Amino acid sequence: MKKIFLIGLPGSGKTTLGRQLADHLGLPFVDLDKEVEKHEGKLISEIFQQQGENHFRLAERSVLRNACELPTGFVMATGGGAPCFFDNMHVMNAAGVTLFLDVPARIIRERLERGNLNKRPLFAGLTPDALKDKIEFLRTHRLPFYRLARVSVTDAQVTAAQLANLV
Questions:
Q1: CA separation for the pair 75, 149 (Å, rounded)
Q2: pTM above 0.90, yes or no
């Protein structure tokens, strides 16, 4: 069975497109962040506050590896940082197809500003200028990992049907 992993910065559309792609392909949708919350019994914001990012990244790695070992296929929206820690990109590439949603920083900023930034630990409490700087910083540092994806999509308006054709 096919395992498809959507990677990219927060706000790139991983969850929205992931759900649509899963429906299109008739596969279950998995949100890695939600699975970590179930595993830990806490919201991600609580994990960050109470135990720190390192604990979160270890839990994220464990949940990701367990999912990769499942015999069934799925479409997974990973957290934006998941590909950048440990050997997670290697694990995902070995288990299935990785799709990098390469959305311009300007569009990501617009999308994030429309949502609730306080639900995103890396962006909570940031001013618009600080948000712009944080997105650009993350993009610069995460791009080498994201570029290890099997498929890169640079169209910010890509549809689930178009993604399905790529995989």
A1: 15
A2: yes
Count the neighbouring beta carbons within 10 Å of the beta carbon of residue 145. Answer: 17
Are 115 and 123 spatial neighbours (Cβ–Cβ below 8 Å)? no
CATH T-level topology, domain 3-166: Rossmann fold (3.40.50)
Residue 115, pLDDT above cutoff 90: no
How is the chain classified by DSSP, letter by letter?
Answer: --EEEEE-STTSSHHHHHHHHHHHHT--EEEHHHHHHHHHTS-HHHHHHHHHHHHHHHHHHHHHHHHHT-SS-EEEE--TTGGGSTTHHHHHHHHSEEEEE---HHHHHHHHHHS-GGGSTTTTT--HHHHHHHHHHHHHHHHHHHTTSSEEE--TT--HHHHHHH-
Residues 134-147 have pLDDT tens digits of 999 999 999 999 99
Radius of gyration of the chain (CA): 15
Buried b (16+ CB within 10 A) or exposed e, 116-140: ebeebbbbeebeeeebbebbeebbe
